[in-house]
Amino acid sequence: MNKKVTKCLFPAAGYGTRFLPATKAIPKEMLPVLTKPLLQYGVEEAQSAGITTMAIVTGRGKRAIEDHFDRSYELENQINGTSKEQLMFGIREIIETCTFSYTRQVEMKGLGHAILTGETLVGNEPFAVVLADDLCDNADGDAVLSQMLEVYEKYQCSVVAVEEIPMQDTNKYGVIAGEVMTDSLVRVENMVEKPEPKDAPSNLAIIGRYILTPDIFDILRETKPGKGGEIQITDALLEQAKQGKVIAYKFKGKRFDCGSVDGFVEATNYFYEEK
Asked: Domain spans of the chain?
């Protein structure tokens, strides 16, 4: 029986050190592109894909995330009946239609560990993962996560979003290689975390969108720390890939690396011109 994806996991426990001092007291996921925080863009993308259960892995100093996805009666009362009220319509609709649950990652041990920390929120079912740092937009059609769910529903295995990057940038990403199935699909046979350009198996880089099957949790429990002494999701996915159970999807749309200042500014300019 095909299992539907009904939950989206948001790892949001990182420190955001590239944006200090702004992120000293503000979670990096709450940095706004125009008037919306990064995490809200990610939640809206999941919602547009039909997902309404949002599972968020947070850490110390991240209470602003919980407060954002909650009612603010005093503020709402203050702007009630004014022109400002419409500015709250989007977030209010999210709060009314989505369920939010939270758990804390006590130690920062890498993305793989963050995803494993979210197991209590996800349970034994397939789930999506969105990294709010990677802001995606597809003005011409379905959001990236919606595109990936179509792939998952057809193949019933883990799906990772990939894009072609300059070879000199491979040391910033997990990089895949494998059997080309179609123009947009590759059955993954190899994955390397942040390889130097000379060691990279291709220029196809994984970005912050995943559909994962629940066996990933057992694999993560057995995964030893890898690059940087962290538990890498790439290493766990490689175990699935050895069984032919990971498909890389070249998505349609634009992606901005909002974990970097350059990407953040680029995204801000793009959305300002689009609005």
From this structure: 7-274
Among 5, 3, 272, smallest CA distance to 149 is for 5
**Domain 7-274 in CATH 3.90.550.10:** yes
Task: Give one DSSP letter per residue of 208-244, joined into a string.
Answer: EEEEE-TTHHHHHHHPPP-GGGS--HHHHHHHHHTTT
Residues of the chain short of pLDDT 70, as ranges, are: 1-2
Give residue 2's pLDDT: 64
8 Å CB contact between 202 and 191: no
**Of 166, 187, 168, which Cα lies nearest the Cα of 178?**
187
pLDDT of residue 93: 92
Backbone angles phi, psi at 9, to 5 degrees: -100, 130
Residue 163: what pLDDT?
94
Question: What are the start-end ranges of the E strands in 91-137?
Answer: 99-104, 127-130, 134-137
Name every residue whose Cβ is closer than 8 Å to that of residue 63 and which is 6 or more positions away in sequence. none
Asked whether 165 and 14 are in contact (CB, 8 A), the reply is no
Decide the pairing of beta strands 134-137 and 204-212.
unpaired
Residue type, 240: Q
